[in-house]
């Protein structure tokens, strides 16, 4: 325990040092309650949590429940960690302070990069040292969590040891992403904290210009509208980059992406890029029996990623997907190859980008800043988001894109009393008292009640299609990484380590994908030998590629990779969400 305390002391000093920087700005938004107004619940309800789907009295009752349930843990210091996303900054800077004022439990809410967060969680699981009491960990880990037994099974916890600290008004049925955090055994392993999808982003004002529309129609033979397939996306990218070139004296580009050799490049591809190209099988949420990582499963057992073992990671569709990813950098700013996820997210707001096929809605807030080149004077956006176009191998009934579902996760190494306190904080950050206000701050909704609220109806015209997306069934079709990936922390780095060689031109795409498929197979083979899970990998015996390519479904044989381009007007395009 002394070692644990020492580690936490060091962590606390590190976080304190970081919090004084402009990046995290961890100082509370307003001062603690004064003796003249001693009720912290009243203070926070009036000054911060003014937007809620609960009535003020219901909010007060919910906050009083937190205060009472936390009494056994007053004075405790919790350590939690999450990624660098606007929503998490709001939690770290505001909600942790509110929780402390109301419950007496202090929270050191650290913000870090996704790769670093994964390394921390992996190290905690491997060592059993309870350094952090909770993580906001992507639901992409669900296949790992239910196989390795290293996290608290929340559905069991809420019924047993955590029953007294489970919020009566938590209302799990109100969450939109529970299917993403529920394992094949039917149990809940994580609690959604935020959600954001990758969608198509474009400058509606530029697409509406009669001169651009006429020039595009004359050259390509169809309308300049929302692209339905990758042919149309490529035509539009080429048009703005090579034909339009400048608007109002400023160079413009027909495409935007990021390609720096680092972990976020891997997530850029593993986050459903191959399924958007059409690599996997029909079936939701991830394709069955071949998923969006190209991994084939038999029941719950992964059986291979390479085509020789029945997977699709080095098949024609996967090779096509990566060739397009690399080739389209020719239509993007030269800097794009050197940017990461965070840096690239800011670019569309600079006013030089015509469209982006794969744009995370976590950046809606940044792209909506008043005075931005992509915003109108009345506060409405010049841009819109729509369904991303799909590749030549995509078939109706496949998943259409990726959705991130950052979710509260409690390691089993956390002692029982600390688990309960951490569970209180996790629930606080998603409670209906605060969830609508948090949604308005970060635009990463998690509750049906918030999405369907009158407040969101009023905000919809200012968010470019975000509300329409989350009010549609599309929120269930844009899905995270599924349960087929049995060891996400160790398998995810394989993506960027290999794909970077194609982006940098060091290896041809076919060779890169062949090596990646082999590396994935080797990772599965290692787990087959060591895993004690009832759903451990059981790899197929290798067969000639032609054997698998001639069978129905994925892996798919070569197709015409440039079918005729197709576009739809915006209102027709977003009907696909319904």
Q: Could you estimate the helical fraction of the residues in percent?
A: 40-55%
Largest sheet: 5 strands, mixed
Beta-strand content estimate: 5-15%
By DSSP, the count of extended strands is 15
- What would you say the CATH architecture of the domain at 2-189 and 406-457 is? 3-Layer(aba) Sandwich
Question: Mind telling me the CATH superfamily name of the domain at 2-189 and 406-457?
Answer: Periplasmic binding protein-like II
**Multimerization state:** single chain
Radius of gyration: 24 Å
Tally of separate helices: 25
Shape: globular
**Average pLDDT, all residues:** 93
Order of the strands making up the biggest sheet: 2-1-3-14-4
Structure, explained:
There is one protein chain. This protein is of the alpha+beta class. Among the domains are: about 240 residues, D-Maltodextrin-Binding Protein, domain 2 (3-Layer(aba) Sandwich), CATH 3.40.190; about 160 residues, Periplasmic binding protein-like II (D-Maltodextrin-Binding Protein, domain 2), CATH 3.40.190.10. Helices cover about 40% and strands about 10% of the residues. The chain has 25 helices and 15 strands. The chain has a 5-stranded mixed beta sheet with strand order 2-1-3-14-4, with helices on both faces. Strand 7 and strand 8 form a beta hairpin. Helix 4 runs antiparallel to helix 16 and helix 11 crosses helix 22. The protein starts with a helix and ends in a 5-residue tail after the last helix. The N terminus is likely disordered.
